[in-house]
Amino acid sequence: MSRNIPEKLRVMVANRADHVCEYCLMHQDDLVFGCQIDHILSLKHGGETLPENLAYSCLTDNINKGSDIGTVLLPDRKLTRFFNPREDKWEDHFTISEGHILPKTQIGEATVKILQLNAPDRVLRRQLLMLVGKYPGR
Q1: Model pTM greater than 0.85?
Q2: DSSP for residue 99
Q3: Residue 138 within a domain
Q4: Range list of H helices, the chain
């Protein structure tokens, strides 16, 4: 998390996302460590601290993504970019089934892979929240 993001901009990004991680759809209130501001295109790759390059992200997704902008998908070893909350619609790239976030596209597949969206503990947390009507968080 960059400490150089002005508070006003942080609040705007959180409000724009309704305080829900824009990658895994978990509400900040249902997360142990809340959410952070993610540079979609990291600073080291030339991204800027502007609203159109910022996303609201849970700590786990932000750490897993790091400064990466994509990954190689097998078997064709194709470089595929990650889901971009400012350009893409979540529903176009993912669906939810029994707590699992399933990719619909290669962009979804790349994002699920690197953000480890279906790690067992994350799926279990989503399943439990689904039982009480709190997931997805939007």
Answers
A1: yes
A2: T
A3: no
A4: 7-16, 59-65, 90-93, 106-115, 120-131
Contact 33, 63 (CB under 8 A): no
Q: What is the dihedral of CA 48, 52, 53, 57, to 10 degrees?
A: 140
Tell me how far apart the alpha carbons of residues 25 and 109 are, in angstroms, rounded to a whole number: 16
Q: Write out the two tokens for 89.
A: 């619609």
Q: State the total domains in the chain.
A: 1
Residue 22 corresponds to which amino acid? E
Residue type, 123: V
Tally helices (H) and strands (E) across the chain: 5, 6
15 occurs within a structural domain: yes
Would you place residue 127 in the very low, low, confident or very high pLDDT band (cuts 50, 70, 90)? very high
Tokens of 31: 């997360």
**Cα separation values, 45 from 68, 85, 123, Å:** 9, 18, 31
pLDDT tens digits for range 29-66: 999 999 999 999 999 999 999 999 999 999 999 999 99
SS3 34: coil
**Residue of 56, 59, 25 lying closest to 40 (CA atoms):** 56
Q: Residue 137 domain-assigned?
A: no
